[in-house]
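CO-FOLDING WORKSHEET

Operator: S.A.
Ligand of interest: pyridoxal-5'-phosphate
Run index: 357
Mode: holo prediction, single chain
Checklist:
[x] sequence pasted
[x] SMILES validated
[ ] output reviewed
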Amino acid sequence: MARVYNFSAGPAMLPQAVIEKAQAEMLDWHGTGMSIMEVSHRGADYMSVASKAEADLRALMAIPDNYKVLFLQGGASLQFAMTPLNLAQAGDTVDYFNTGVWSEKAIKEASKFCHVNVVATNTSAVPDRSEWKLSSNAKYVHYTPNETIGGLEFQDIPDVGDKVLVADMSSTILSRPIDVSKFGLIYAGAQKNIGPAGLTIVIIRDDLMGKARSGTPTMLDYKVAADNDSMYNTPATYAWYMAGLVFEWLKETGGLSAMAAVNQRKADKLYAAIDGSNGFYANPVKLSDRSWMNVPFTLKDSALDAEFLKASKAAGLTSLKGHKIVGGMRASIYNAMPEAGVDALIAFMADFARKHG
Ligand SMILES: Cc1ncc(COP(=O)(O)O)c(C=O)c1O
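OUTPUT RECEIVED:
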């Protein structure tokens, strides 16, 4: 059966070459007579997979030596709690930008553990520097570089001076090169640009570990994870292996600069199609702050939504339904979405507008 272009926000498309490699290795990994799923995480075979994945990620993102890379579980959602538990004590102030649904979830969770100061709120444009209200004593500043639901993306890293910057990069990690040294902590659920669900990547500066508040569960302490090479308990071995295959694929396809060029081109042409549709399609985000990864759009007549989804699916373009909070459509065009998939979507949208405009 032919594969479709899947525009899901996550779990999302994986590169076909990666799935094919995993398929070829499924029954007999490297002559062991076992699937990599069936081997001990403490054995030499698995350790080589785990450490190669980490080395490749470090190379791809140019992660400095004074950062640990952790392969955890619990999704980005667990990081909403782990961040304040590890980086702040009860009663401390922490700063959060609110740029949409995911920011709000992070804020809600952090509020259980600390005093949260909201630096600025804006869901359709990156808050202007003049609107920021940073607190003088915040233990860290948290932001969501890419709001997966609203399609709002910071194109630049916010300058928060000497404050520890924390970023939920779930839906933008690996989409382009970033300067890791600007961050204290980066986290991301895997199921968009990294691999299958079940794995969470954390990149944390060494000096920020070992200060978790008392009472922090062992499994939620970054230092415990780091001291045990992310194997304090059994890690998500298969998801980690798959992430390793994705990192290999990224290296083979030219790394993050090459990926960024394709991603920008894909996003630019899709937004151009929306903006050039004479109002048939619309995207509410300020031009300069539009996401490269998640492109929400509405149809001028929402009564056509069901027909759009039905016809797009029939054309091999799936999972375009927008998040239930915002409605409309959303095309998630992560690294693994081929440019041809975006071209096919654009052609479909033009045709649909012609028929129904
Ligand atoms: C920006 C962002 N943060 C957090 C999450 C939650 O991630 P998880 O399901 O891995 O907990 C998501 C999921 O879509 C997301 O897009």
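REVIEW:
The CA atoms of residues 170 and 188 lie 4 Å apart.
The radius of gyration is 21 Å.
[x] output reviewed
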